[in-house]
Structures are given as structure tokens and as C-alpha cells.
Design goal:
alpha/beta, 4-stranded mixed beta sheet, 6-stranded parallel beta sheet
Amino acid sequence: MENRDAFMQKLAQRLGREPRQIPQPLPVTHSAPLKRRYAGQIQQQPSESFMEYATQVMKAHCELAPLATLPQVAERLCQHYGGGPVVMSGDARLAKAGVTAHLQNAFPTTCWVAPESEENLRNAAAANIGVVFAEYGLCETGGVVLFSSPLQGRAISLLPPTTLFILYKSRLLPGVTQLAEVLQQRVQSAESLPSCINLIAGPSSTADIELIKVVGVHGPLNAVYLLVEDC
């Protein structure tokens, strides 16, 4: 940057000190309250804590299903919210669980494919339900974490009126602090991170006016969390 040193020198003079090129170390703390908050209840009953908060506070529809009946439960939930057309993530985990083929037989269904971006967006805009695979669930906020990928675009969970989030029970985390730790571990292991990480807590809503919660303001009207009993 041109004139950087002169600018920093002038700024330091105004502050009455020498220019600093190396940031001062952060203070050492011996407590980490965010790692312990709600830890007891969440660790003992993670799925109950997650579903209770998501249902009562975030107004999401939550269900728990064994892996063996996952395709049938996904079909029933889609039918409950009006059926197709459905746009699905191309995530291999959905296909492996039998959800992709089952929903394709039950409803007019398209899968997100790479790199046909325009066709993907048209399918998402025309769909009644979007089906995605969530990486993590956050018990403290009743939200889910989505990783964008070439086979799972953001529009799947943004454009259709209803989004069905499928999530493994074993991937529930106490809160955002633990999610940050997971992501940090991935970086330290030289693993690539997705281009976009979305934290979604229930359907579109606002409580700006007199703290009265109104659902369905500027996005999906319905958020459905389908937890898979894998542990």
C-alpha cells in the first residue's frame, strides 16, 4: 500500500506512541464460559434439547426417525407440506439412504447438479419443497448448519416455501462455539472449507415489532428438521 508507513507514523504520533508493526498478544483467560453454557442438559439429552428449542422457539417442525424408515418418513413429510415439485441436494448421503430414489418415485423431483447453475436455479424457484442434508445441528439455538457445495446450492433452502433438513443425530453440537472448534480443526488439518456456511434457525421470521414473532416474512415459510437415529 502506498504511503502506508507515513500514514501509520502520523497516526501513531497523534496517539502519542511509537508505531506498532506487531499486534499485542491477547490476554490469557483461564475460563471458557461459552464451552460450558447449557452443557449439562445438552450433553445428557442432545436430541431432546435440540428438538424442544427448535419446536417451541424457532417454530420448526421436528421429527426423529430410524435410518431404515428414513425414505418413507421423508415422503410423508413432503406430502404433509403439499408434495412436489421437489428439488433435492445431490449429496451422496441422500442417495445412499434411499431418500433420493424414493422421492423421485413419489413426486416430480429434480436433483441439484453441477455445473448447470441456471437450470438449478429455475428448478429451485419452481419447487414447493427443497430437501438438503445438514452437516450439524446446534442445540443451543435450534438451528442447522449447511455447507454449500457444487451438489448443494444455497437456493435449495432459500427459494422453495418449505425446506426439509435431514440431519444425523450424532452430528448435534451444543452451540456455535463447538462448531467453531470443529471448523478450526478442519483448517489445522489442511482440509478445505466450503465456499459458504449457512446457519439456519427455523423458518423465516422476525420479531422487530413489539417482540411479536411473525413467521414467513422474507424466506421459506416452513422448516422441517428430520433427525436420523444413527447413534
